[in-house]
């Protein structure tokens, strides 16, 4: 924690001092922009986003466990083991999150504050890279300004995903590597090491990033082999850097990865290659719907299909719609659905920045930035699931640098146009602010698992002397929500909770969570029963046909519901309720109207039930 905090403060202080040297007005502008960006990150941080997704909850519950017991949620994972905290999660984010749990706010705010810091400091790193590349304070300033309000960086400053960790450390490593002092090369090693173990999707990028940096350094500084021989210290630092880097790769790929069977299986399932099931099945389908011809093997084969798939993905990754207008549907849970990862005007700035570098014959800088864009596209190109919002995130910093160069070009060529452009850009920021704070919380509620969040608040409020049985399709996720949001992972309960995770039997206090409904279930009126509408009956007979839950046997019983916000469809049905049924004002649909409605912990029982529990 101290290391990360020190990096934050030193980088921000140095960039501020550089940008604002002998210019008090510039200092005030930067401070004002930083203050406004801070507001976008911390306003309603405890309620927007409304809940944590699976990956986020995986990190935070393990961080809670580490903060209490020094081990992961099952009592087995060791923080310094450099092994994934869970099968689909990375190695280090839990360690960085853990110290923030000791801050004096609620758990949600404590954890998200780390990501606020990451998202606010990342633009300063981009400004530093801009200065190193262009030697222009104005380009660095405009890069900082665009980065502070970039929609992707903004939103990831309020989420709890691992991609921004890796992106931040890789960017820091690039900053250090591009410095003139040799000792900074070794500092970049630490940053690259931390980034490597922060996000699975960016692991394969690191050797390519370092190769691109090394080539750019040679061309930019025109360091010939003879020159290196004449400077033993430079030779030593470069050799030490590459030996250490190769040792890290060898340790991971030849020692760690082979011992992680679950990780190997995940990689095998996710990697997109010509022999992948997705490619082969498409080829078989196309050949079946083609009249027999000797040309078919030449034009319909897995290599042609693979090339077409890659080309299509490149068009998606760098497509105007995805970047500047509307994100892919699979990402709507995590981001404003009707907005790109950039503003519309950024598209003009990026093109102008690219043309400016070409016109000014800054070919080395142009090729370096383009190589980083090509490297950043790789995770989305070669995995079965696109997940562009995270897997292609490495392209974002370098597109922002292009945009900073473009905005500087406008400011130098036409002051009136520049003022008009800034006003228009500010309007786009206001539009995104409205969409994020007033529309996104409700529109994306189910995508970010609002119903489990509502349910665990209900469970915590229910009478403690009454047994509650929940039949839940994802019992571990619901159990984790219940533990985390109600801050139950304490020293006294830690052993019991870790045992629940290890044995996959989710029972705590008066709560029992089961994965299926016993076929001979007989409900007792002294117990509250809650059914996930997607739950199935338990199959005692292995040959029995899967039977979806049929609520007809319970029609005669009165019930309450937890519904989806967007379409009022049932998510959970509650029988024998003793918390909300006494309030006559329950509605038949959900209609939260204020920001306070999203802050469940601040609502009394009456307001909670009237806002979030329905009666048909």
At a glance:
The protein is mainly α and 616 residues long. The protein has helices at residues 2-19, 24-42, 54-69, 93-97, 107-134, 137-148, 151-156, 163-177, 183-196, 205-221, 225-230, 232-256, 261-270, 277-288, 296-299, 302-317, 320-324, 344-359, 363-381, 388-391, 396-413, 415-443, 450-461, 475-485, 494-503, 595-598, 605-612; strands at residues 468-471, 506-508, 511-514, 528-532, 559-563, 570-575. The relative contact order is 0.09.
- Silhouette: globular
Instruction: Trace the largest sheet across and list its strands.
Output: 2-3-1-4-6-5
User: What is the count of β-strands?
Assistant: 6
The fraction of residues assigned to DSSP E strands is under 5%
Low-confidence stretches: 223-228, 542-549
Distance linking N and C termini: 50 Å
SS summary, helix count: 27
Largest sheet: 6 strands, mixed
Query: Approximately how much helix is present in the residues?
Result: 55-70%
Cα Rg: 27 Å
What is the residue-averaged pLDDT? 88
Class based on secondary structure composition and strand pairing: mainly alpha
Task: Explain how this protein is built.
The structure is a single chain. The chain has 616 residues and is mainly α. The chain has a domain at 450-612. Helix content is 58%, strand content 4%. The chain has 27 helices and six strands. The chain has a six-stranded mixed beta sheet. α14 crosses α16 (302-317) and α18 (344-359) crosses α21. The protein is globular, with a radius of gyration of 27 Å.
């Amino acid at each position: 924690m101290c290391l990360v905090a020190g990096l934050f403060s030193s980088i921000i202080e140095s960039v501020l001092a550089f940008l604002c040297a002998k210019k008090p007005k510039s200092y005030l502008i930067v401070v004002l922009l930083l203050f406004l960006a801070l507001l976008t990150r911390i306003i309603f941080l405890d309620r927007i986003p409304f809940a944590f997704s699976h990956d986020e909850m995986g990190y935070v519950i393990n961080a809670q466990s580490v903060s209490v017991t020094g081990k992961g949620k099952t009592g087995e994972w060791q923080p310094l083991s450099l092994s994934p905290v869970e099968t689909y999660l990375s190695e280090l984010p839990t360690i960085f999150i853990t110290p923030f749990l000791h801050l004096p706010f609620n758990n949600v705010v404590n954890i998200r504050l780390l990501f606020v810091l990451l998202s606010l400091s990342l633009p300063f790193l981009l400004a530093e890279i801009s200065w190193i590349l262009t030697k222009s304070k104005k380009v660095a300033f405009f890069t900082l300004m665009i980065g502070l309000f970039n929609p992707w960086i903004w939103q990831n400053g309020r989420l709890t995903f691992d991609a921004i960790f890796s992106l931040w450390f890789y960017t820091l490593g690039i900053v250090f590597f591009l410095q003139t002092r040799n000792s900074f090369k070794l500092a970049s090693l630490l940053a690259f090491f931390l980034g490597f173990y922060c996000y699975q999707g960016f692991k394969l990028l690191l050797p390519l990033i370092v190769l691109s940096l090394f080539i750019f350094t040679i061309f930019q500084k025109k360091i010939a082999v003879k020159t290196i021989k004449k400077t033993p210290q430079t030779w030593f630092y470069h050799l030490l850097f590459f030996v250490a880097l190769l040792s890290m790769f060898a340790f991971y790929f030849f020692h760690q990865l082979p011992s992680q069977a679950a990780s190997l299986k995940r990689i095998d399932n996710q990697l997109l290659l010509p022999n992948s099931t997705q490619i082969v099945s498409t080829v078989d389908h196309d050949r079946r719907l083609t009249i027999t011809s000797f040309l078919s093997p030449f034009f319909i084969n897995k290599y042609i299909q693979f090339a077409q798939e890659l080309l299509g993905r490149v068009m998606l990754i760098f497509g105007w719609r995805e970047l500047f207008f509307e994100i892919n549907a699979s990402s709507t849970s995590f981001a404003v659905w009707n907005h790109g990862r950039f503003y519309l005007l950024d598209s003009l700035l990026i093109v102008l920045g690219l043309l400016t570098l070409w016109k000014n014959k800054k070919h080395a800088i142009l090729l370096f930035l383009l190589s980083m864009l090509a490297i950043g596209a790789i995770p989305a190109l070669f995995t079965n699931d696109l997940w562009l919002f995270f897997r292609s995130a490495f392209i974002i910093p370098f597109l922002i640098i292009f945009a900073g160069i473009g905005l500087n070009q406008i400011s130098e060529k036409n002051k009136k146009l520049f003022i008009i452009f800034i006003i228009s850009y500010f309007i786009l920021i206001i539009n995104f602010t409205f969409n994020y704070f007033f529309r996104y919380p409700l529109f994306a509620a189910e995508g970010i698992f609002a119903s489990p969040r509502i349910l665990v608040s209900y469970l915590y409020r229910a009478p403690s002397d009454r047994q509650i049985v929940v039949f839940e399709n994802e019992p571990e996720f619901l159990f984790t929500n219940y533990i985390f949001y109600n801050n139950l992972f304490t020293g006294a309960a830690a052993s019991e909770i870790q045992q629940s995770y290890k044995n996959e039997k989710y029972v705590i206090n008066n709560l029992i969570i089961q994965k299926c409904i016993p076929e001979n279930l007989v409900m007792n009126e002294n117990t509250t029963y809650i059914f996930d509408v997607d739950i199935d009956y338990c199959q005692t007979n292995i040959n029995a046909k899967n039977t979806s839950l049929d609520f007809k046997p319970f029609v005669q019983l009165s019930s309450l519901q937890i519904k989806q916000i967007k379409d009022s469809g049932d998510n959970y049905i509650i029988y024998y309720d003793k918390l909300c049924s006494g309030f006559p004002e329950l509605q038949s649909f959900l209609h939260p109207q204020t920001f306070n409605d999203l802050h469940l912990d601040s609502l009394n029982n009456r307001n909670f039930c009237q806002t979030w529990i329905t009666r048909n």
